[in-house]
Amino acid sequence: MSKTFVVIPTYNERENLPILVERIFALNIPELELVVVDDHSPDGTGTVADELAKKYPMKVLHRDGKQGLGTAYITGFREVLSRAPTDSRIIQMDADLSHDPSAIPTLLHASENCDLVLGSRYIAGGKIERWGASRRLISKFGNIYARIILSLPYHDLTGGFKCFRQKTLEAIDFSLLSSVGYNFQIETTFLTHKKGFRICEVPITFTERKIGTSKFNWTIISESFWKVLLLRLRG
Ligand SMILES: Nc1nc2c(ncn2[C@@H]2O[C@H](COP(=O)(O)OP(=O)(O)OP(=O)(O)O)[C@@H](O)[C@H]2O)c(=O)[nH]1
Ligand SMILES: [Mg+2]
């Protein structure tokens, strides 16, 4: 029987994680398992996750130190693919409550007809809450830039709320993924598109975190600028 895996990278999310986990399991989605990838968070998120794993179907992967969002996802994806029953779904989302778990059934439903479903802030019905003008502008510009440079028809390339069908994720060569920040999201969608898989977008509401600190910074923006160009050159 196929399963639904939800992969969540965490770094200093001790207050957010228990709220998120409860909300996800309150949806009562059958055969759902969480995979948390924690980078030895100084605030003890790893221990909080271990406690939650005693109560819920949840696997916690502990890494030695902060190694970036991209490799955290790869670690989680590899673990899931090593044991996922045929035709499972793999959802990825942030731990900071920016992604509303109530959209998970919508993503799963859309994955019946699509190999990768993107939770999109930039299509009709999509929204962003609690972001100031400058953050909106950077995100909007980044998406238009990647869309044009990579000739992709999708509206939200940098979002981190996505659902892969198992065969889609299996077809991605993880050794081609090198990004630390949100450019990782562009890379996986680009490679999926290049392989000819069906990608669709469903509207989501993104809400900026209320608890904890953002890891967004200029290094992550510049990484995306250069790596989108590199992706284009490599084709
Ligand atoms: N394991 C791991 N998780 C990370 C790392 N960096 C970020 N995360 C997690 O990845 C998710 C997204 O990170 P955020 O800090 O929200 O970064 P962001 O979404 O780019 O920035 P904001 O939109 O400002 O919140 C969160 O669940 C983080 O805890 C990392 O180096 N390792
Ligand atoms: Mg965030």
Q: Secondary-structure blueprint of this entry?
A:
Layout: E1 4-10, H1 16-25, E2 32-38, H2 45-53, E3 58-62, H3 69-81, E4 89-92, H4 104-110, E5 116-120, E6 127-129, H5 133-149, E7 162-165, H6 166-171, H7 183-194, E8 199-203, E9 205-207, H8 218-234
Parallel strand pairs: 1-2, 1-4, 2-3, 5-8, 6-9
Antiparallel strand pairs: 4-7, 5-7
Helix pairs in contact: 5-8, 7-8
Bound molecules: guanosine-5'-triphosphate and magnesium ion.
Magnesium ion binds next to loops.
SSE arrangement, N to C = EHEHEHEHEEHEHHEEH
Strand fraction: 15-25%
**CATH-level-4 superfamily name:** Spore Coat Polysaccharide Biosynthesis Protein SpsA, Chain A
| CA-atom Rg in angstroms | 17 Å
Could you characterize the architecture of this molecule?
The chain is of the alpha/beta class and 235 residues long. It has a single domain, classed as Spore Coat Polysaccharide Biosynthesis Protein SpsA, Chain A (Alpha-Beta Complex). It is 39% helix and 18% strand. The strands form two sheets. It has a seven-stranded mixed β-sheet, sandwiched between helices. It has a two-stranded parallel ribbon with strand order 6-9. Helix 5 (133-149) packs parallel to helix 8 and helix 7 (183-194) packs parallel to helix 8. The longest helix has 17 residues, at 133-149. The chain is globular, with a radius of gyration of 17 Å. The model has no long low-confidence stretch (mean pLDDT 96). Residues 9-11, 13, 37-39, 66-69, 72, 94-96, 98, 182, 209, 214-216 line the site of guanosine-5'-triphosphate.
